[in-house]
Amino acid sequence: MAKKIAFINFKGGVGKTTLTAELASRLVYEYNKKVLLIDTDPQTNLTFYFIEYKDWENYVKLNGSLKNLFESYIQGGLTPQIFDLNKVIMKDFYINDKTKKHTLQNLSLIPAHLEMMKIEADLAYEIGRRVGDISQNEKLKGLKRYHETLHILKNALLSIENDYDFIFFDCPPSIGLLTQNALVASDKYIVPVIPDYLSTVGLQFLKRQINEMVDRINKAKEFIGDNNFYNGPKRSGIIFTRVRVWSWGPPLELVSPQDIIFNRLKNDKEFSNILFKNFMSESARVQESAEDKIPVAIRTGKKYEESREQIKELTKEFLLKV
Question: Which residue has the higher pLDDT, 129 or 318?
Answer without folding.
Answer: 318
